[in-house]
């Protein structure tokens, strides 16, 4: 029973052909040995889905993590070029990659944030590349094809830090470019809870 549940959850998570929709990244890293967990949701059109991130501070200015979202499962890294521990301007480079059903994705881009006591607005620009392979079985006629496409994603958001270790974030994203596979209308809205250990 447990195996069937795990397979069902993984299949559901990996059943789309787009890179992760949430960003929820600030320019600051966690710090060496620290852990971060983000849980939230994404809404676009009539669809609402969950999104989860787990990150580990591998070095003072570098985080490595796992990202799970409807349609995607992968790893990400964030390297801070300017990394104030408290208030101030932060700047980082973000990169990631992972799996989707019958394919893979990769993304990279800059993050800019400015922490002001309880508030931390941020901007993320990402270049996304998705490659997927289409295979149909004998019942539908056999065909095989592959396709790749790229698009830009621009995200504007803010984190409300309730305490040093707990925050709430909300963000709006827009996509630009040809996806060939998915047609989005309007902005993508996401938000969630951030916990730091």
Provide a descriptive summary of the structure in words.
The protein has 197 residues and is mainly beta. It has one domain (2-196): Beta Barrel (Porin). Helix content is 6%, strand content 63%. The protein has one helix at residues 2-13, and strands at residues 35-44, 47-59, 62-69, 72-82, 88-100, 103-115, 119-136, 143-161, 166-176, 188-196. The relative contact order is 0.21. The protein has a ten-stranded antiparallel barrel with strand order 1-2-3-4-5-6-7-8-9-10. It starts with a helix and ends with a strand.
Strand and helix layout:
Layout: H1 2-13, E1 35-44, E2 47-59, E3 62-69, E4 72-82, E5 88-100, E6 103-115, E7 119-136, E8 143-161, E9 166-176, E10 188-196
Antiparallel strand pairs: 1-2, 1-10, 2-3, 3-4, 4-5, 5-6, 6-7, 7-8, 8-9, 9-10
Give the CATH topology.
Answer: Porin
Query: pLDDT under 50 segments (min length 5)?
Result: 4-15, 138-143
What amount of the residues lies in strands? over 45%
In the CATH scheme, the class would be Mainly Beta
| Domains, number | 1
What strand order characterises the main sheet?
1-2-3-4-5-6-7-8-9-10
Sheet/helix structural class: mainly beta
**What is Rg?**
17 Å
Percentage of residues in helical conformation: under 10%
In one word, what is the shape?
globular
Largest sheet composition: 10 strands, antiparallel, barrel
The average pLDDT value, as a whole number, equals 83
Number of strands: 10
User: Gap between N and C termini, in Å?
Assistant: 33 Å
């Amino acid at each position: 029973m447990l195996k069937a549940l795990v397979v069902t959850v993984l299949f559901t998570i990996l059943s789309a052909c787009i890179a992760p929709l949430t960003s929820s990244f600030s320019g600051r890293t966690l710090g060496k040995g620290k852990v971060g967990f983000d849980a939230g949701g994404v809404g676009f059109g009539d669809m609402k889905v969950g999104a989860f991130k787990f990150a580990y501070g591998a070095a003072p200015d570098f985080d490595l993590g796992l990202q799970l979202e409807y349609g995607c499962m992968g790893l990400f890294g964030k390297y801070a070029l300017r990394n104030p521990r408290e208030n101030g301007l932060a700047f980082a480079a973000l990169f990631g990659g992972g799996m989707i059903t019958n394919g893979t994705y990769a993304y990279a881009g800059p993050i800019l944030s400015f922490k002001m006591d309880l508030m931390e607005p941020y901007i993320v620009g990402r270049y996304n590349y998705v490659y997927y392979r289409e295979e149909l079985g004998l019942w539908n006629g056999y065909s095989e094809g592959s396709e790749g496409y790229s698009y830009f994603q621009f995200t504007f958001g803010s984190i409300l830090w309730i305490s040093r270790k707990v925050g709430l974030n909300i963000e709006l994203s827009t996509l630009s470019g040809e996806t060939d596979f998915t047609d989005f209308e309007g902005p993508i809205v996401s938000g969630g809870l951030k916990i730091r250990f």
